[in-house]
Predict the 3D structure of the following.
Amino acid sequence: MTRLNTKYPLVGLLMVGLLGLISCGNGDGGSNGTESDAEGAQDYVEDGTFIYGLSSDVGSLDPHFNPTSAGLGAARYAYDPLVHVDSEGELSSGLAEEWELEGDIVTFTLRDDVTCDDGSDLSASMVKENLDFIGNPENASPLLGTFVPPGAVVEADDEAGTVTLTLAGSAPFVVEGLANVMMVCDAGLADREALSSEVFGTGPYELAEAAPGDRYTYERREGYAWGPGGISNDEPGMPADVQLRVIENETTAANLLLSGEINAASILGPDAQRLESLFSSSTYSVIGQQWYNQTEGHATQELEVREALTQALDLDELMTVFTGGEGARTTQLAALEPTPCNDGDFTTFFPETDPEAANEALEAAGWELGSDGVRSRGGEPLEVTFIYDTSVGAGGAAASELAVTAWEEVGVQVEANGVPTDEISEMIFGGGSWDVVWVGLNVNTPDQLVGMISGPSPLEGGQNFSSISNEDYDALVAEAMDLPGGEGCGLWFQAEEALISQHNLVPFANDEITVYANGAEFEVVGLLQPTSIRLYED
């Protein structure tokens, strides 16, 4: 299951997992609450309002096209998937009450009591239309190849209430991936343009107001009873209204938390120290991940340039600055719990920090150092456009300055631009002009990144936004995909090592992402689960 937090994209994804597309809570709902909180003795607030502080705007509300963390998080309030994945990696019912995987055929049996927010009934045909839309490469949904296996043939039986997918190839985590696909109702499917600013779903809440850049307000639906494992939305303490409020400044968000003006927010910087007495839920996720644009015409298409840019960096120092000394080096791409693959470690495949070797490699590749300190070849300067996410706080900005300085010292001319999360997603998937980008894609299963790392680029109808071409990775992935579930983990780790060896990307920092809450508790499984929110009296 790809999981993206309100702080970092997965792709998104972005997934940003992606993607999501890609987490701000731990699986066991760990908290730092009071004793009465732990014992569940607090008095619940009935029909209250839950206010969540977002560090960046949601962007498009279309769940099939917005794999950012804010987008996927917002979608959970208004839409439902076929199944859910809990903190232990176990599947539970959603729109489907039963599912069966036999060979290359997956069958879902839908509940017969699900309705859309306009009162219409959920149907197997509706689910098929969702999956067919995502599965059509011409529609360029970032969910294709991430959560929906390419080439899958979908059949619907409305009378039996079943949806059957016949896979085109091996997909060891297909059901877990579909847990991230939100199903849009017929009214939305008929008006894709409206989906960017309106919602048409089966979820526990309906959109009451959308004010981009400011807030998104949702109202509780009556009669909803098909949440994770069949939970309803009329439990004691469940809010009648949810407001997602855009608060870009962490200090402001922390102040509002302490004053009780908002109920929850993810805080990473020094302001977190003031919040230690509050309820919290945490997990580690990949936040520092460097991608090189390997599209023809970019200097970073050259292996020698990518290697030199990597050698110039002190990755341990970058990680420390990025995370404020609280993080750790990334060791595998599928890092979010629950993940079936653990104990990978590709850090030994990175080159040692060596600016002198970086200079020598660039010189050998024909990039000569000029009197102005900038290298050039054939009259063209060695310049890179570097994009980083402004939503990651002061640590990310400080780390980006270190990277720019290191690259300039080996003769690279750098244009650095801080960009909000939603704009980064548009840039990398829309063919924007960039050479190096920092964007953390968080996933639970390694297959969910395959479409982002291999195959066609977005301009060719795919999701390989960096235009990576690595034959060793492709071969190892093909081998791993033929093994069920976690049996292929060793091969997945070898595939990731092949990427690092060719300097296709540089994952360098994980950090603990913590959501703090005041006057509320909830469960976070990658994303905050709307039906788990409980408001209570202080």
User: Anything to note?
Assistant: Residues 81 and 181 are 5 Å apart (CA to CA). The mean pLDDT is 88. The first strand starts at residue 49 and ends at 54.
